[in-house]
Structure formats: structure tokens, C-alpha cells
User: What shape does this take?
Amino acid sequence: MRRGKMRCMMPSMIDSDATELEVEPGLIPVGEWPSFSEASEHALVVLAMNLDCWIFPSAGSYAVFAEPSHAGAIKHEYQLYAAEQAVRQEYVDPPMFPAGLSLMFSWALVLLGTFLWQGRDSTVTDRFCNSSVALVQDGEWWRPFTSLFLHADGGHLLGNVAIGGIFCLMVAKLIGAWRAWPLILLAGTLANALNAWLRFPVSFESIGASTATFGALGILVGHSTRLAWRHRSYREFRPLLAPLLAGLMMVTWYGTSGENTDVAGHFLGVACGMAIGWFALRKHPLGT
Assistant: This one.
């Protein structure tokens, strides 16, 4: 394949009193910039097209010259390059917040305290679990929320704290802990409410923070999808690769297996989290 060549007159080679140098015959200018570095940058665009170009000083600026037959294509490529650079300049990297470890530890302590309360009072689970009949028929609206703090056994509790905590910390670093935790709990609550409503009139009950855990994963996906859509750039998904792979493993090992696993609740958690990540974060300071 043919490779383009760039020939240039370096600033150190130019007489301090010279403003112009004789251009080789048969060449025409395709662009002019105030500095040599800018001209070189645009010359690289030409080289990427596998075309030849030349840089010459011209009246205090630097011009890129090329063969007339290539001038139209080069100028069109410069327009595309300028548009791409404009988009990059508009983009503002989202700020990274502290992980909010103190809030996570507080959340873990609340779950542990509630679990110990369940052990002392056998009626707690029945009164506060998510229930399709109690929610839809009896109007006990608090159950989708309170069930997030109940667990069946120590392993269930440990899994939600250890695995779920990772995703919750990721969301906290992305949007701030004081904003992340209410949205995570909202995702879990909505998922539980939808799950109970869709099951009614069949009697269905569930407990556990896993719907909120999967909601946190959904918020990460929704947030990155919003960024990719806004900036028309798939590079916004790169930071999401690690949590997505971990989420896939979590869904495979933890979210779809086991006799008492609520698969529908987990997927509803992801769906609600994605919706929240898309809409609730739309005014996040990420540019226009």
C-alpha cells in the first residue's frame, strides 16, 4: 500500500527575516494555521489518507500544500476532523466522587441489625417482606422497601453485602454517595413493587437486598448508555466493561441459580436501575 510523505520547512531552518519561501510548482494550499504544530497536526491527517503533503511558512503562518487532484478530498477530511475536535472539546469528563465507604458501612450495619432483629422476633419477616397480596390487595405500600433489609440466612446477607457493595461503591464514585444510595434503594423498591404487582393474584413473597444490588448494576449501564448516546461515542462504554463482566458473572452464579432465587426480581432490578441511570442522571454536568 502506498504511504504518504510529508515534507516541511522546520522553523529552525527559516531565516528570521523571511516571511515566505518559494513553493514547489504544481502544489496548492489546502489549509493555513498560525503555528507550526497546528500545521503539522493537520499534515498528519493528510498522511493518514496515504497522500503526500508539504508545509511551508507563509506570512507569519504555516500552510499545508498538496497536489491539486487531492485538494478536495483533503479539505473534506479537514472538515470532518474539525467537527470531531469540536465534539471532543465540548465533552467534559464526569467528576469522580469519593466512594462513600462510611455510608456503605452504615448500610451493612443496618442490614446486620435487621437480621439480628429477625432472629429475635419471628414475625418481622412476615410483617415486612415483599408480598403480592399484601401490597396489591391490602395496600401495604411499604413492603417493597422494607423487604430490601431482610435476609433469609447469614449467607444471603453476606452475599448481598460483599457482592452488592462493590456495585454500590461504583455508583457512588460515579455520581456521589449521597445521590447514589437513594437511587439504588429506589431501583430496588420499584423492582420489588413491579415484581409483586406482576405476580398478583398469585401469592408471592420475597426478601433481600439483591434487587437493589442489581439495580446498582443497572444504574451503571444506564449512565454509560446515556453518555454514549449524548456524545455519539462508544468509548463511554469502556469504563463499564469491568462491572458488566462482573455483573454477568453475578447473574450467572448468583442471580439465576438456587431454589429460592428470584430471577424475575433480579432482572427487574437491572431494568429499573437502567431507567433511573438514564433519566435521573440526565442533568448531570457532562456538557450539552
Summary: Confidence is low (pLDDT under 50) at residues 8-20, 282-288. The longest strand covers residues 28-33. The CA atoms of residues 20 and 136 lie 83 Å apart. The chain has two domains: 6-90, 101-279.
